[in-house]
């Protein structure tokens, strides 16, 4: 899927899409030294609402700190850049928003400490990322990179080679999505999603220390579950716990709440989205469109 829009925000200016270019000697192109985020904006018929803008920008700054690169803007300036990138295109539909901070110096040196960074933000119309009626997933042969090898808590471009290999393997084997085990064999994440399983009415999800991205949707789901009285426990999940779960679902900004109806050829439940998954997916859809007053703190209007 190629993406496009009319305008992007690039180093402080609104620029035409086709003019937003970088040089081939750019550090980030060679070494994956970029920090990115993925946000969604939801059109509610009257306004476009960005979901959890503050948390995404906060994570971007944490990622930059972990990589050890400068962000030449304040968090307020980055939030404004994200809003402006959407506003410039006058979108009146659901969008995906991609801010990217990257090491922009033209060099082949590795040490990033004194190198410059650029910030760009683009957005484009975006519908469902995965089939909402339920997906078929496979535990792939690539393992989730361990946080003693790369800081998986940070959304760093280079780390996504792990996700690229995993999803490419799953798709080439005919599955919709990859599930990755960590080096100890516990199933920790999708290629771009956190994972939840339901057993006997309670939910389980891997803890943040188990080499996962600290997902903002994961946090949203944990908060919503607390509010509606569904117990969530953070604990390692084995492959056989996944196979025998009552329900499995993946969560992420792009995937939202996606039911998993099959893992490695085994039906999850009765191969249909289960009641807990459906309840959370429905609530999540209302929350992101600003339909529930209690969670209005999570949405930022663009217009
Ligand atoms: N894990 C990985 C590897 C991801 O790429 C994403 C998507 N950003 C997630 C989890 C979910 O994170 P979030 O809910 O913040 O989008």
TrEMBL record:
Gene from which this protein is expressed: ilvE
Metabolic or biological pathway, per its Swiss-Prot or TrEMBL entry: Amino-acid biosynthesis; L-valine biosynthesis; L-valine from pyruvate: step 4/4; Amino-acid biosynthesis; L-isoleucine biosynthesis; L-isoleucine from 2-oxobutanoate: step 4/4; Amino-acid biosynthesis; L-leucine biosynthesis; L-leucine from 3-methyl-2-oxobutanoate: step 4/4
Reaction catalysis annotation: L-valine + 2-oxoglutarate = 3-methyl-2-oxobutanoate + L-glutamate; L-leucine + 2-oxoglutarate = 4-methyl-2-oxopentanoate + L-glutamate; L-isoleucine + 2-oxoglutarate = (S)-3-methyl-2-oxopentanoate + L-glutamate
Upper classification of the organism: Archaea, Thermoproteota, Thermoprotei, Thermoproteales, Thermoproteaceae
Organism, scientific name: Pyrobaculum oguniense (strain DSM 13380 / JCM 10595 / TE7)
Family: Belongs to the class-IV pyridoxal-phosphate-dependent aminotransferase family.
Alphabetically ordered keywords of this record: Amino-acid biosynthesis, Aminotransferase, Branched-chain amino acid biosynthesis, Pyridoxal phosphate, Transferase
An example Gene Ontology molecular-function term: L-isoleucine-2-oxoglutarate transaminase activity
InterPro entries: Aminotrans_IV, Aminotrans_IV_CS, Aminotransferase-like, B_amino_transI, BCAT-like_C, BCAT-like_N, BCAT_family, Class-IV_PLP-Dep_Aminotrnsfr
GO terms (BP aspect): isoleucine biosynthetic process; L-leucine biosynthetic process; L-valine biosynthetic process
CC cofactor: pyridoxal 5'-phosphate
Role, per record: Acts on leucine, isoleucine and valine.
Highest taxon, organism lineage: Archaea
Enzyme Commission number(s) from the entry: 2.6.1.42
Descriptive protein name: Branched-chain-amino-acid aminotransferase
């Amino acid at each position: 899927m190629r993406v496009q829009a009319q305008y992007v925000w690039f180093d402080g200016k609104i620029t035409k899409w086709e003019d937003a270019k970088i040089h081939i000697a750019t550090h980030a192109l060679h070494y994956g030294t970029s920090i990115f985020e993925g946000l969604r904006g939801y059109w509610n018929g009257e306004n476009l609402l960005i979901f959890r803008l503050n948390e995404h920008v906060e994570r971007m700054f944490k990622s930059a700190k972990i990589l050890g690169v400068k962000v030449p803007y304040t968090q307020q300036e980055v939030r404004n850049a994200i809003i402006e990138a959407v506003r410039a295109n006058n979108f009146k539909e659901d969008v995906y928003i991609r801010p990217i901070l990257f090491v922009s110096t033209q060099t082949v040196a590795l040490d990033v400490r004194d190198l410059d960074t650029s910030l760009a933000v683009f957005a484009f119309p975006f519908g469902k990322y995965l089939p909402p009626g339920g997906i078929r997933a496979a535990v792939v042969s690539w393992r989730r990179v361990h946080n003693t090898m790369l800081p998986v808590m940070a959304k760093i471009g280079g780390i996504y080679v792990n996700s690229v290999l995993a999803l490419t393997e799953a798709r080439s084997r005919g599955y919709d999505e990859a599930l990755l085990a960590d080096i100890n064999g516990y199933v920790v994440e999708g290629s771009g999603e956190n994972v939840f399983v339901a057993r006997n009415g309670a939910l389980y999800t891997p803890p943040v220390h188990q080499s996962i991205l600290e997902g903002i949707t994961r946090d949203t789901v944990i908060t919503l579950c607390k509010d509606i009285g569904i117990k969530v426990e953070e604990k390692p999940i084995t492959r056989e716990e996944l196979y025998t779960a009552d329900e499995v679902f993946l969560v992420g900004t792009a995937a939202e709440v996606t039911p998993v109806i099959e893992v490695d050829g085994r039906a999850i439940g009765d191969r249909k989205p289960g009641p807990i998954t459906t309840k959370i997916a429905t609530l999540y859809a209302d929350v992101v469109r600003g339909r529930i007053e209690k969670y209005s703190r999570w949405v930022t209007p663009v217009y």
